[in-house]
Amino acid sequence: MFHRKPIEERIAERVAKRPPLTEGKHFEHRPALIVFCVVVTIALVKVIGAFFLMKSGLR
User: Fold this and answer.
1) Which of 6, 33, 52, 54 shows its CA 20 to 30 Å from the CA of 16?
2) pTM for the complete prediction?
3) What are the extents of the domains in the chain?
4) What torsion, rounded to 10 degrees, do the Cα atoms 20, 26, 30, 33 define?
5) Is residue 59 a contact partner of residue 53, using CB atoms and an 8 Å limit?
6) Where, by residue number, does the polypeptide cross the bilayer (predicted)?
7) Residue 13 and residue 1: Cα distance in Å, rounded?
8) How far is it, in rounded angstroms, from Cα 10 to Cα 4?
């Protein structure tokens, strides 16, 4: 359809063009790192907020 290569072949070509990762310099999957940091930050804000509410006497 439309004379295009299948998505698998296009992805494989893009991956083959990328330079190899250097150890310690790059995170293998950057969006996963960002999602992890956001989840940890949200959890910390919730815990700190809960302690603040308990300290102030609100329920």
Assistant:
1) 33
2) 0.52
3) 29-54
4) 140
5) yes
6) 32-54
7) 19
8) 9
